[in-house]
Amino acid sequence: MARTLISPSILSADFSKLGDEVRSIDAAGADWIHIDVMDGHFVPNITIGPGVVKALRPHSAKPFDVHLMISPIDNFIDAFADAGADIITVHPEAGPHLHRTIQRIKALGKKAGVSLNPATPAKMLDYVLEEIDLVLVMTVNPGFGGQKFIASQLRKIESIANQVAKKDLVVDIEVDGGIDAATAPQAIEAGATVLVAGTAAFRGGPENYAANIAALRGGA
Ligand SMILES: O=C(CO)[C@@H](O)[C@H](O)COP(=O)(O)O
Ligand SMILES: [Fe+2]
Question: In this predicted structure, what is the pLDDT of residue 219?
């Protein structure tokens, strides 16, 4: 069975001490650090920009998994790469030329991801799957933590996992939204290789982070 990585979303961390939160979740066993960037335009919420990513960079050596929910996207790719992102994930609806955006991310030496909203079909990947490192399947509508898992997305994960296997590609399938100890095994069963969790990872404060991550791995 494929390995399962845990990428806790700092959207659910205590924003008044983000550096400490990143250190704590890293020490608790996070594989990646998921950073949700929202612009109040592509999604109805505003979070953080490249300056915060840069400030957090010294707090962890784990890969920064940066999920960009901003449009237009292209003017910001370089800024997040410079700030210390390792994986940069974009939504196809966030710019006019997805292929070009991916090329730019790769040219900067970063891993490239494409994120699909719940209503966006897997077909969107037909001409880019060979170019990318990761597909991020949203199991909630993007914008907020703490929403309910949309189970219809399991079928999409399965279909992408089949395509990846059929084409013999090395592409992670990351699932994002409403992931907890109950939904994690369903996502893994469908083919997810990376689990994002905000609420379930940061629940109860730092003394609970290791147990929270272990519970998510319980399905692995
Ligand atoms: O990208 C997003 C939301 O748009 C996510 O990364 C959330 O932060 C996940 O939070 P939970 O659903 O796990 O609370
Ligand atoms: Fe996210």
Answer: 45
Q: Which of 138, 144, 174, 183 to mutate to test the pocket of ligand 1 (most atoms within 8 A of CB)?
A: 144
| Percent of the chain with pLDDT strictly greater than 90 | 97
Our answer on whether the CB atom of 147 is closer than 6 Å to any ligand 1 atom is yes
9 lines ligand 1 (CB under 6 A): yes
- The verdict on the CB of residue 176 being under 6 Å from ligand 1 is yes
Burial class (CB in 10 A: 0-12, 13-18, 19+), 57: middle
- Does the pLDDT at position 177 exceed 70? yes
As for the ipTM of the complex, it is 0.99
Q: 92: which residues sit within 8 A by CB, 6+ positions away?
A: 98, 114, 116, 120, 124
Residues known to be catalytic: 36, 176
Among the four given CATH numbers 3.30.450.20, 3.20.20.70, 3.40.630.30, 3.30.2350.10, the one describing domain 5-217: 3.20.20.70
